[in-house]
Design goal:
- The structure is a homodimer of 168-residue chains.
- Helix content of chain A is 59%, strand content 6%.
- Chain A is mainly alpha-helical and 168 residues long.
- Chain A folds into two domains: 82 residues, Winged helix-like DNA-binding domain superfamily/Winged helix DNA-binding domain (Arc Repressor Mutant, subunit A, Orthogonal Bundle); 79 residues, no CATH class.
- Chain A has a two-stranded antiparallel ribbon with strand order 1-2.
- In chain A, helix 6 packs antiparallel against helix 7 and helix 7 runs antiparallel to helix 8.
- The longest helix of chain A is centred in the last third of the chain and has 30 residues.
- The first copy, chain A, binds a DNA duplex (30 and 30 nucleotides) through helix 3 and helix 4.
Chain lengths: 168, 168
Amino acid sequence: MDQHRSGCPINLTLEILGDGWSLIVIRDVMFGNRRHFRELLGQSEEGIASNILSARLKRLLAEGLLVKHPDPTHRQKSIYSLTEAAIQLVPLLVQMGAWGRRHTPVSRELSIRAQLLEEGGAQMSADFMDELRHIHLGAPAPEKSVLAGLQDAYLRVVAGQTDVGTTS
Amino acid sequence: MDQHRSGCPINLTLEILGDGWSLIVIRDVMFGNRRHFRELLGQSEEGIASNILSARLKRLLAEGLLVKHPDPTHRQKSIYSLTEAAIQLVPLLVQMGAWGRRHTPVSRELSIRAQLLEEGGAQMSADFMDELRHIHLGAPAPEKSVLAGLQDAYLRVVAGQTDVGTTS
DNA sequence: GAAAACCAGTTTCATTTTGCAATCAGTTGT
DNA sequence: ACAACTGATTGCAAAATGAAACTGGTTTTC
């Protein structure tokens, strides 16, 4: 947090998230529920290097988008959690997914979640954010799990079924 | 366009726009209606360097987010226009502005546009996109100009009036 | 209780990208 | 002819990235 290029909200958001990896990390914590260093390192589609992941986690902690807690089951492990600021990135990520689905060569398996979130509209995003507040901030659990529904749809697509999301 | 890291829509969007300057350039073309190299170079709040601007314009042309036309008034000048793909970034930029306004130290003058677009909702974004299609793609002109409204509000804030956007 | 596997990073080093200032050649106005 | 302006390019130092090996510690396995 030295000096800012300008006070424009788009610029300031870009100064925090405007690189190739920060939002990937947040995406994996948010949608993949990856909470440890090794989970983020190994199970990522994109294959982030350990030094880059380390640097990004450090920066996201400093920027207040993530919080680190010790893991009771393993003295060396830390559990990374989203903060409210990161949870409020949901609509932005939904828009990124929607744009990517329309203008880039996405794969079907990896875009089904984006499709469902786009079709689910603001209500679904709000429900998802409530669920994230439960998972990461300890808020009361919502009745239904958006995340489970997204994961179900993903697994169905991976399994080869193609009639997902067609609101017939 | 060599190899992609993954087929995830968020990742693919990040591969195109995940740097500190690309969205700044698009923002200036979109909201500031800067259409020439020099306009983008000199009148930007953030002070982009000429080699970076040159590289970014080249990449945005290659990615299909901008299009370049010769300027009839000057043989060396080019007019940069947004493509439909870039115009569809409006909701994303609105979300970036909304998040930035909530979680970064924005300045009042530079965030009034973001505030109005956020308050205007999906309808205002759609109207704005129609206006951009008129300006950049030659589509028929809409009745009312969103851009003029945003600029008005900006100038009112700069002039010192503080009762803008308070939906009393 | 020793060995193996796992953990969160760090170190090293080559390559690439940025940031900044100076420069460039072509174009236009005077 | 000449100065100002056009969209860039060049040179160079600093920073960021990427891949792999490595570290110090922890837990599991045999």
